[in-house]
Structure formats: structure tokens, C-alpha cells
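Preliminary data (for renewal application), nicotinamide-adenine-dinucleotide complex.
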Amino acid sequence: MKDYNIRKRVLITGGAGFLGSHLCETLLDQGAEVLCLDNYFTGTKNNIKPLLGNPSFELLRHDVTFPLYVEVDEIYNLACPASPIHYQHDPVQTTKTSVHGAINMLGLAKRVNAKIFQASTSEVYGDPEVHPQVESYWGNVNPIGVRSCYDEGKRCAETLFFDYYRQHNLRIKVGRLFNTYGPRMHPNDGRVVSNFIVQALQGIPITIYGDGSQTRSFCYVDDLIRLMVLFMESGDDMTGPMNMGNPNEFTILELAEHVTEMIGSSSEIIFKDLPADDPKQRSADISIARNKLGWEPTTQLKEGLRHTIDYFDKLLSESKG
Ligand code: NAD
Ligand code: UDP
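Predicted structure:
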């Protein structure tokens, strides 16, 4: 018989990363027992340092490409490098992380009858021909390009999630995350928000790839984590895929201008080659999240950038000693 006084046990893979560390914190605040799994490829112990003394928090060094057996009620599968320079550093390992990681975590969920969330991505839409992107759009992905290890790895993970759902009645939640930013992003991971802020704070040139007319919609981390938890708590019929992001769309040039203006930076803007297969236009259609979960992002770009700038400012001052 289930003892309802026992607290929910949650496994978070990639828990020492940017999003994972915020999720660990939120779930601990809500009274869960959290098992944070990471191999520290892009995450760091620093991200979860404040949680280490909490008796409900446990840390496990493990690589999701290897099987794992633990007793948990819910699994959030976030393990995977997310920035292009990190996921292209060892592309074979990136595909293995998404595919073998999904197989191992789905196998675990099946054995222990856990509910499982997959951090999928807007990259499953590739360089989209439908705008804004709706979940029913199948995407336009180059299967052999430099981004494919990430895009196709995540697409295959989605396939595995839906096959476990159809074949084994597993309770799945597939979320397609759009560009998310905030404190604890890695300062050198090459993503656009962290790059521009760090460059502007250091007074070095802001590097725009291409002419800066490509667009992204940027979600602040707190909004995204709130949605992740809401989604996990929703009924079993809510499998997704569900877009998760802030639909407000900006060109990369506009982002650079906001950042330099807010920091009052003298950094010049320079233009570099656009990387291969870089999506030209991206914005989330979030009707499903809005209508089915009543979710709305509440932190808009300037406010989110302010928190993120303050974080990097402090981090850079500390590293100067
Ligand atoms: P991140 O790089 O900060 O976090 C990923 C974490 O996974 C890191 O702590 C890393 O060490 C860990 N990891 C990587 N490979 C692993 C492995 N084989 N075994 C165990 N741990 C491993 O990135 P993030 O932004 O926090 O992204 C988290 C998840 O969300 C990723 O799956 C990413 O694809 C997805 N996502 C993020 C965004 C975004 O904008 N932040 C957008 C779309 C999807
Ligand atoms: N980008 C840029 N300068 C940078 C880093 C990124 O112009 O220093 C561009 C990049 O080419 C892309 C957009 O910003 O068009 C978002 O890049 P990011 O790596 O953050 O995310 P993704 O391409 O995965 O959406």
C-alpha cells in the first residue's frame, strides 16, 4: 500500500546544469526529495552548492549513457549539452547522450513506474518553414549537418518517448524548450545571451553571427521552470509534445542593442560568419501551454536581462578576485 506521507522522490538528470539547478531548487522548495544526477560535462557543482547541506538533496555522479537503477516517482531528463559549441565538441557523445540517455531513463521509468519528462527542443523544427512554430509542424532538419547530433538526437529521443507511451503505457511528458536564459548559464558556453552580456561587461566586441536579422524568442528561466513543474503535475493525457518558451520574438541585432544599452557598454558590434544551418526565424506558438495549463510567461526580456546582467557582473567581479 502506498504511504501518502512519504515525500515525492524526483530524479533530475543534468541537475547540475543551468536549468537543472533551478529545477532542483524549485522542487526542494516544494518539499520533494531530489536526486541530482550529472557527469559535469557542462554543469558544475557550484550551481548546486547552496543545496548540498539540504537533507532532501542527493548528488550522484553518473553518465546517462549507462544504465541506472534507483527508486523514484518522477524523472526529469535534462542531461545533454545545450549550447552549439558544447554539443558540437563531441558530436557522437551528444547523440549517445540523447538516445542512450532516453533509452536508459525510459527503461528506468518503466521498471519503477515513474512519470518522465523529456527536455526536448525547438531544434526539432530545424530551420523552420512554418512560423511561429506549432507542435503539429514536423520540422525541417538537416540530418547530416553539424547541428544534427543535437537535433536528430532529440528527435529520436521524442520517438522513443512516444513508443514507450504507446507500447508500455508509460506516463510521458515531452516539452520542446525554446531559447531560455538567466543566472547560472555558463559564461563561456557560447550561447547568445551569455556571450553578449559577458562581452558587453568586459567592453570587448559583441559578436553577431551573420547580419543579425535571424530571430529567436527568449524565455526567462523562472517562467520555464514553473511550466516544467506544471506540466509534470498535469493529467496523464497531457503527453505533449508541448512548446515551452516566451513567444516574443527579437532579432539578434535587437538583442545586442538591448544588452549594450542596458549595460551602458562601449563595446562595438562586429559581424562574423553565420554558422551552418543556423535557423533564420524562431518563435514559439504557446497556445497549448496557455490553454491547457493556464501558463503565461511573466518576465519579459528587459527584466530578465537585468537579473542575468547582475548575475554575470557579480560572477566576473568575483573571478577578478
Ligand atoms: P546545460 O549544459 O547547462 O545542462 C546540461 C547538463 O547535463 C549539464 O549539467 C551537463 O553536465 C549534463 N550532462 C551532459 N551530458 C550528460 C551525460 N551524458 N550524463 C549526465 N549528465 C550529462 O544546459 P541547459 O540549458 O541547462 O539545458 C538542459 C536541457 O534542456 C538540455 O537537455 C537541453 O537540450 C534542453 N534545452 C535547453 C534550452 C535552453 O535554452 N537552455 C533550449 C532547448 C532545450
Ligand atoms: N549568435 C550570435 N553571436 C553569438 C552567439 C550566437 O550572433 O556570440 C547567434 C547564433 O548564430 C544564433 C542565435 O544567436 O543565430 C542564437 O544562438 P544560440 O547559440 O544562443 O542558440 P541557438 O542557435 O541554438 O538558438
